[in-house]
Each structure stands twice: as C-alpha cells, then as structure tokens.
Amino acid sequence: MKRRIIVGMALPVLLAGSLLTGAAPAAASGGAVGGSGSRYFLNDSWSGSANYSLNYGRATDAVYVGDWNADGRDTLTVRRGNSYYFSNSLRGGSTSTKVNYGRSSDTVIMGDWNGDGVDTFAVRRGDKYLITNSLRSGTAEATVAYGKAGDTVVVGDWDGDGRDSLGLRRGDKLFLKNTIRSGNADVTLSFGRSSDRVYIGDWNGDGKDTAAVRRGATYHLSNSFRGGAADRALTYGRSSDATLVGDWNGDRTDTLGIRRPDPKPAQPTRPSRDLDCTDFATQAQAQAEFRRWYPTLGDVHQLDQDGDGAACETLP
C-alpha cells in the first residue's frame, strides 16, 4: 500500500529518533481519500492522461485505496458506516467482498502491517491503534499507543522492509516509525509548510515511500527524504480534484489518480410565463402542459388543485 496523503512540505531535515510531543494536526494519510464524486481517473504512467476511468460507489462514500488480495495491484473500497465494500478490479459494478469492522464512528487507516501483500485495517481511537492483519470482522491482533490523540497519522514503508508502519504529522514535523510498536520515532523530518499538500508513495519502485508535493494540479515528486529539487514534476487533473496514489498496474511503482466531483445536474428550464386554467381551451391542453413540467418542477402552474394528477378538471 503506497498511498499516503498529508499536508505540509518544504525541504526535509533528518534528525534522530525523537520524543513525540505536541503540535497541530494535518490531513490524514493511509485513511480515506478526500473529496467527493463517483468518477475516478487513474494513471499508471507519468503522463497527463488517465489509463483507467471508472464510476464507482456513491458521490458521498468514504473511499480507500489498497491491495486487498495480494495481486500487486491497488484497487478501491468504499466505506458506509462500519461496512466496507472491497473491489479487486478497476471497474464499476458489484463489489468482491463486504466486511463489517469496528464502529461507524471509528477513524480507520489501511496498511500492509505484516508484509503479506494485503492491506488491512487499523482502527484509531485517540492515541491507540488497533491493528488487524486480515480483512474480516473480529478483534484486533495488536494494539499500540503512539503519539497524542490530536496528531495526524501517516502510513508508509519508510525503510523498505516490505511492511507499512505509522508516522505522525505535527506542524512542520514528521515522526516516522519503522515498526508497529509504541515508543519514540525512528526518524524525525522537518517537512516544511503546513499549507502544502503532500502525498506519499513509492515513486521509483525502490520499495521505500517518499513524498510528492501538490500545488494546484502540479505534483513535484521526490525519491528520497532530502533537500533539493524534485526528481519529477507532473501536471495531472484539475485543482478541484481529490488525489489518489496507488500501484494500478502491478509494476511496483506508485502513480497518481484523481477523484472528481460528479457534474451538477442541469437546472430544468422553466415556463416562460405562469399559466392558469383560463389560458387553455380544453382539459387536454391543460393536461399536456401539466405533464410537460411535472417530472422536473412539479405542478409549476398549480393546475391540479386537488392533487389527483388531473389538471383543470372543469374544462371541457
């Protein structure tokens, strides 16, 4: 799973594993994709056009990205309450698996916690993380305390060991942990401006997750946590789109996707003027006008006074 969304980036400065003490939260990583809409445009190469486009779920669904069956390809799941609907292919239609897990009020993140190739649940409650290594209902297999309840969690494979682990975002600092256990961070990064939008992925297939900055619709990607110019820049989608990161084609390299708001339905046209029953010579004429507008605007002329679906019943 290499799809981490956070906020805030400048040039990283490496420190030693330091103590986890307070600061402001940013946007979540490893959790639900932001935005709204049921249209997805996914790119499996570094080009400006989508290789996959699909409609999936509802515009209001919470959406996660992950590899749910260990085939090396990331796909989507939608969450409604505490129900998760998993799909193992990049197409619309019915889901592959439904799982009920946790509470509808839980904050949930996804990651490959044990390195088996399957992304699974972690429920966050305050500063506690309840982690499971399977996509089924039941109790957590591990519980760890990390950071503070107000921290923002990020998820990634920071050291290339094949296992995802936790990180925390506070202000301009990232606190990255290389194992699923309580305690101090293994690496602390100064990571710049909280106003920047940052995504995490394995951009070059080396097995380690690093950062990309999004500004408008342009992404600046780095293949290491170091200062200097970005390794790649790409403009993709629109500034109003929400961003997804995943390995859509199984080539071990993460690339971009977007979630786009559904287009607003066209506003129905309205009659050029208001009509009364006296404007019609026959009931049939009034009924035709009633039927013309009723599906979109209802009884816009108020021709059906008793609500029985018949307009201007006193006319011949």
Explain what the structure shows.
This protein has 2 domains: 4-260, Methylamine Dehydrogenase, Chain H; 267-316, no CATH class. Helices cover 5% and strands 34% of the residues. The protein has one helix at 283-297; strands at 4-9, 13-15, 39-42, 52-55, 62-66, 75-80, 83-86, 97-100, 107-111, 120-125, 128-131, 142-145, 152-156, 165-170, 173-176, 187-190, 193-201, 210-215, 218-221, 232-235, 242-246, 255-260. Strands 1-17-18-19-20 form a 5-stranded antiparallel β-sheet, with no helix packed on it. A 5-stranded antiparallel β-sheet has the order 2-16-15-14-13, with no helix packed on it. Strands 4-3-22-21 form a 4-stranded antiparallel β-sheet, with no helix packed on it. Strand 17 and strand 18 (210-215) form a beta hairpin. The longest helix is centred in the last third of the chain and has 15 residues, at 283-297.
